[in-house]
Amino acid sequence: MRATARTLTSIAVILAGATVLSGCSVLEDWGVLPASESVVEEIAPAEETPAAEGEEAPAAEDTGFVVPACDALFSAGQTTALVDQSRVSMGDTSEGDFGYGTTNPELVSLLKNVRSDLRISCTWYLPASESVSVTSVAVVIPENVTAITAALASSGATEQETGGGVLWVIDSTTSDESADFIATEAHFLAAVPCPSSLAETSCTAWVSTNYAYGKAETLTLDAAKNVGAFGG
Question: What is the DSSP string of 13-52?
Fold first, then answer.
C-alpha cells in the first residue's frame, strides 16, 4: 500500500508540475488529456470602406450668367441709398401680376414664362407711401428678345444703345390711372453667356425696373452693372 501510495503521489506531483510548467500541451503528450486540434487565429485584413453609392459629385460652378439673389442685386452704394431713404426690402416678389419690374401685361407675361431659376424680381417700398420699386432680372432666349423689343417699341419707350446693350425708358407707365401717380420704367437688354443649365447658345440678360415716384433708369443701370450685364 505504501508503495502504491508513493507511486500515486509521485504521479500527482509530476502532473501538477507539468501543468504549471507546460500547460495542457504536456498532458496531451502524456495521454492524460485528449489531443485537441491546434487553432490558429487568423486576423482578417481590414476591410476597405467601399465608395458610397448614390452620392452625387458637387455640382460644377455655372460659368454662364447667374441670376443674383435680391440681397446681391444692387451695388453696395445703391443699397445704402435705398436704406438711407428708409425703404424696406420685400425680397423676391415674383408672384401674381404686380411683383415684376414692369406693368405692361405683355411684358409681365413674358417674365412669368421665364423658368423660375432664371429670373428674380426684387421689391423695395417706402412705408406709409405709394412709392414702390420692383427690379427684375431674367435670362431670355432670342425669340423672347424679339417679343420684348416689339412690346417696348409699341409702348412708346425710347431706345438708346449703351453698355454693350440697349436701354429702353418709359417716362410714365400708369399716368392714365391718376394724374398724381407717376411711375417710370427702364429696361436694359444685353447679350450674356448662357447658363450651363440651358441648351441655348445665345442668351440675353433682361433687367427691368418699374418705380412709382422714382427714377427707374437709376435702379436698372445699377443692377445691370452690378450683375455683370452692363459692358464698357
Answer: HHHHHHHHHHTHHHHHHHTSS---PPPPPP-PPPPP-PPP
Q: Residue 209's CB: how many other CB atoms inside 10 A?
A: 30
- How far is it, in rounded angstroms, from Cα 174 to Cα 184? 8
pLDDT tens for residues 157-201? Answer: 999 999 999 999 998 876 455 556 789 999 999 999 999 989 889
3-class SS of residue 204: strand
The answer to whether 171 and 211 are in contact (CB under 8 A) is no
- CA 133 to CA 155: how far, in whole Å? 20
d(Cα 171, Cα 215) in Å, to the nearest integer?
Answer: 9
3-state secondary structure of 70: helix
pLDDT by residue (tens digit) across 126-144? 999 989 999 999 999 999 9
Count of all residues that appear for the chain in the document? 232
What's CA 182's distance to the chain center, in Å?
37
